[in-house]
Design goal:
Structural class: alpha/beta
CATH topology of the largest domain: Nitrilase/N-carbamoyl-D-aminoacid amidohydrolase
Distance between the termini: 34 Å
Strand content: 15-25%
CATH class of the largest domain: Alpha Beta
Helix content: 40-55%
Shape: globular
CATH superfamily of the largest domain: Carbon-nitrogen hydrolase
Number of helices: 16
Largest sheet: 6 strands, mixed
Strand order of the largest sheet: 5-4-3-2-1-12
Radius of gyration: 24 Å
Oligomer: single chain
Number of domains: 2
Amino acid sequence: MAIQSLLILISASLCFLAFPPLNSYWLQCISLVPLLFLFHKSYLNCFQLPYFTQLRNLSLLGFIFGVVYMGLTNLWVFELIEFSNLPKIICLFIIYTIYEAFFFGLIACCYRLCHCKAFLLPFIWIVFEWLKSYGPYGSPNGVLGYSQANNILINHFASLGGVYAVSFICVFISSLLFLTILSITQKHHRRSFLYLFTIILILFSSHFYHLPSTSSPQTFNVASVQANHPMPYKFKRKNRAAIRQDYIQISQDAIKQHKLDFIIWPETITASLNLNFKSLMSPIQTMTQHDTAFIFGSPRKENGHYYNTAAFITSKNRVTYDKIQLMPFGEYWPLKRVFQFFKLDNIIPGSEFTHGKTPTLFDLNAIQIAPIICLESTNSCLSRTYANQGADILVSLVNNAWFKGSSIAARQLQMLQFRSIEVGLPSIQSANMGFTCFINASGKITGILDKYQQDYLFQSIDCVSIDTPFRNWGNGIVLVAFIITLGYLLRSYYLYKYILDKH
């Protein structure tokens, strides 16, 4: 039992340490080797047990791995203690962790049903990784591929099959390493050489993989503002005027220094309905007379409903986009009545927003700007929709002041990098508190502000785009993985039934 616990702890810790703050992305490619050895040993020792007991035991090991891994990953929720109380935060932590750990139990169960074939684990893994990220309680946290945002050896696979293709590669390399070690112990040296050679081919594939890029003749100048206001400061009504003035002053400084096509402010610049404030809109309208457009985030009320909105302001018109993918528990409550019954609603303030319905492009002198708000940077389907509608650039508005002490801002930045790689478009992020940055169409960060810096970031951007296979096929690799997994599960079922009939 002690060895089992140790192997689970090692594997879960390696998965976690591949992400920020340590950001040792190379660990991800070896992270599952201890877990695979545990599964292998359990598989060899379980044949004297009833079949369903075998499934239960291996599923339990996978679930425990998930509890440890997702428990470490979800520590960010304790940053919300400033806005709630400890019992509610602990409850939220347990809900997220147990829910997500359940999928790792299913991975282990399917792995056993497939007779613990290591080459099948990457297919099984990404199926359940996708399922874990889908639906009202879905969370992108813990998706292995995101840890590889800055790993140029394998992050290019995202342009083929999205972040799940990169997760597939991570699990595949771990599986090959496990098979290599196993082959060496069994003195199958030729086989181990083949496994190692395959790993080398994967890691050097980037030298042979190139997609053509296209460049627009248009170049535009952008300033992205980071005001660095803590959430307790933003919530106080007396500070709202000062907050708006900070954004106005930084923007005026940027206009004095540069000829700007547009300026970006982050999500929910204050806790008020900013679109209704003349003290904000009047200075913006004045600055737009310099042929400078504005994009900023603000709460908005319409017909009794509140929306988390991105506003696009020019000297001639105003266009809004309402956030489609809201944050569960933060911006809305799935199954709210259930949580109200247990008095667990309103863990954090601001959970009464309404979902937007339609992706909206902002048109600036024939440049098509695709707005995404906070959690939407995790949504590859949304960015793919924008890309296929003709978007030239992704603009992400975020407010990570909720989690100022955690690594969630760095993880969110990795997700935006993947959106750029997937659809082959440059991205700009404006954050209230880390990280305001520019990202090119290959996912490389080309400019960034310090997490706690109050300033603007300027860049002259050429609309370089890459027509990636992901634009056409999306997360098709998940469907392929599902078909292969299902096919092998059916094969195992009929084989098991045949053996029973024989006896």
